């Protein structure tokens, strides 16, 4: 198995290091990751400035690695089209992110966008996140990612799909199983902190807090609340079929 | 009708100006848009640096407008949470983008991400793009956006949905109608141009060209190829239901 690992927390993130150490024992492993944190970048790619990649060292590991000035999606492009020198990966992994990527997070998530770019290259791809922001336990998440990568190699994934994995921040013995979930409605409520700089000008910090929504059964956040690993199959087709049908009756017209 | 207009080409883009001029005659119109081009930003939000907004003038218009250092999604947050001073918009419009946003473009598109952010605030939202990169004709697109905004106000949109509109670059009399479409498989094939800078170091330009795919009936690109306006209902739930069902049989396990 040949894997390409990226993330959005940056190449020196402990979550990425944990994933690399687990995979390099069993797979031909490459890392192409942003040199700095690129959280909440969405599925951005860099068209307006030159991209650069320089060799990097992953602590305690001997894998080939590059740090780039790009987004997670840029990293996947750089890896597949140039840095891996034609060695097409069997799996793209993005993570391990510190903090969950669930519900409405998905459209913003740099971690998920790395896996999306893998899927666009038709490489089976997995985004992996830990469901807590503090004192993350990476072992279970890294081992489960390996288990899932092997399952994907055996069974394949349909075109234009990827897997979004969230692992509860618990020791292995406390994890209550695995749930194949749907993306839930959990979201952050955006908030602006308006401040004044020393020169008297206004600026804003964009922040947010989780909306107080109940966990709906079968969703990603419901699985995590139960101490289960959440695996959400994600597709690249964003069409809303129900609304499409309803709109046929709208009789829209070209204005005269 | 109160509208908030943003885009990803930047506040001085002719496509935005055309939209503003059409709407200000009939609606209370506000503009919050990036000061520079922010194409291919995906659904990025800015969490790691301060956001700033300064008053701006839209040529030939008297609407209130602000230019920001943020992404299209940041602009919508700034507008709704602060700049509009509590005047919640009835509709968020993003565009008019010069160049289509179809198929796989959608996950990368800054134009679409502005409308996505509107939908996250539960404001009915529309992304509008012109199907050509040169000599864009904005009139039909702007007038159709107005028609569609009025239809939405009358009928409403379901939560967590938005509309992605692509208008053929044709004079009004040559447009062959309106099609309610699904997101098609059209995509760009990424390509890297590897160069050497004057100091002898490698850098890359990320570029791409359209994949030579046939237009499938009922898709966004099929409608445009027929000279029709494409309206694609988009949802924020990315779950792939079919794969979710199939994966129940995978019997994934927590590694021992």
Structure description:
2 copies of one chain form a homodimer. The first copy, chain A, is α/β, with parallel strands linked by helices and 256 residues long. In chain A, 25% of the residues lie in helices and 27% in strands. Chain A has helices spanning 14-24, 72-83, 110-120, 139-155, 220-225, 241-247, and strands at residues 2-6, 28-34, 53-56, 64-68, 91-98, 125-130, 161-167, 178-180, 188-196, 202-210, 229-235. In chain A, strand 9 and strand 10 (202-210) form a beta hairpin. The N and C termini of chain A lie far apart (60 Å). The model of chain A has no long low-confidence stretch (mean pLDDT 94).
Task: Describe, in short, the structure shown.
Chain A is an alpha/beta fold and about 260 residues long.
Number of domains of chain A: 1
Beta-strand percentage range of chain A: 25-35%
Q: Oligomer, anyone?
A: homodimer
Order of helices and strands of chain A: EHEEEHEHEHEEEEHEH
Major sheet attributes of chain A: 9 strands, mixed
Mean pLDDT of chain A: 94
Structural class of chain A: alpha/beta
N-to-C CA distance of chain A: 60 Å
Low-confidence stretches of chain A: none
The appropriate CATH architecture of chain A is 3-Layer(aba) Sandwich
What is the level 1 CATH name of chain A? Alpha Beta
The strands making up the biggest β-sheet of chain A line up spatially as 3-4-2-1-5-6-7-11-8
Rounded to the nearest angstrom, the radius of gyration of chain A is: 19 Å
Determine the CATH topology of chain A.
Answer: Stationary-phase Survival Protein Sure Homolog, Chain: A
